[in-house]
Amino acid sequence: MNVRKILELILYCLVTFLVCFFLVDWLLPSASPVMTKTSGTVKKQAFTYVAIGDSLTQGVGDTTNQGGFVPLLAQSLTNETDFEVKAINYGESGNTSAQILSRMQEKKEIGKDLKQARLMTLTVGGNDLRKAVLEDTSNLDLDRFDKPAKRYVKNLKQIIDLARKDNPDLPIYVVGIYNPLYLNFPDLTDLQTVVDQWNQRTEQTLAAYKDVYFVPVNDLLYKGIDGKSGVTEWEQGKETVTNDALYDEDSFHPNNTGYEIMKEAVLERIHATKKNWSER
Predict the structure, then answer these.
(1) From CA 242, how far away is CA 251, in angstroms rounded?
(2) Is 29 a domain residue?
(3) Is the Cβ–Cβ distance between 88 and 49 less than 8 Å?
(4) Beta bridge partners of 242
(5) pLDDT tens column, 45-100
(6) How many independent structural domains does the chain possess?
(7) Which of 125, 189, 228, 263 is deepest in the core (most CB within 10 A)?
(8) What is the pTM of this model?
(9) How far apart are CA 104 and CA 97, in angstroms?
């Protein structure tokens, strides 16, 4: 076989191969790649969380000045759910239940935000009880607190009803009060009884509502972190006890750790009732 014949044979084979290749590629559907790269992360669904209340909502005692448990809760929900949680904080230090209710009635922006909210927290009652105690610190007779408690319960109901005026199924988590004086005045057992009964009234009131939940925090805070009765110190022969869950400057409001404890308590209750807010 001469060179010319060999070249013609090679050219013939090459052409035949190319024709077969393109014919098969045209006839057979192309398969989708098994693994593909996404162009980015899936965007989370927007979620509005409204926090209303007193100094505990405002975050007094939080040295980061971020707003206490509220931003911690929003961040945890963002990290642990499919939602991008935006927190709107309407906390104001010193507010009683009557003052919180008044703000909700007067400030239209609160109503607008509540209308869009998918979750709400409320801290209320501590200043009502504080006001009642200060009226006569020498008399902690339980009967004396009946009238202030009835006013408080009436306001609490109105707060809940107003919050749900344009959002009737809004889940609401109400944080209970705690006794910040326990470690310094453990002999004031009547005060602890008053706090316990105040929380019981709150819980009983909320039981009449659907998807309104009570979050107890007294047992988590009143004895310090992990219930260890705080930190005992001796200075010049004098014993002092510090509640290490409370802010050093006033020994009344939670400190950063205290707010983390509050956040965990609220978050636990939210997770336990997730089906009532995540599918709205």
Answers:
(1) 8
(2) no
(3) yes
(4) 231
(5) 899 999 999 999 999 999 999 999 999 999 999 999 989 999 999 999 999 999 99
(6) 1
(7) 125
(8) 0.82
(9) 11
* 125 C-beta neighbours (distance < 10 Å), count: 27
Distance of alpha carbon 175 from alpha carbon 214, whole angstroms: 6
Check if the beta carbon of residue 191 is closer than 8 Å to that of residue 139.
no
Enclosing domain of residue 142: 45-276
How far apart (Å, rounded) are the C-alpha atoms in residues 78 and 84? 5
Contact 114, 163 (CB under 8 A): yes
Helix (H, G, I), strand (E, B) or coil at 185: coil
Measured on CA atoms in the order 167, 173, 179, 183, is the torsion positive or negative? negative
d(Cα 30, Cα 14) in Å, to the nearest integer?
24
Spatial distance between the Cα atoms of 172 and 174, rounded to a whole number of angstroms: 6
C-alpha triplet 186, 268, 204: angle, nearest 5°: 65
Does a structural domain hold residue 11?
A: no
Cα pseudo-dihedral 206, 209, 210, 212, rounded to 10: -30
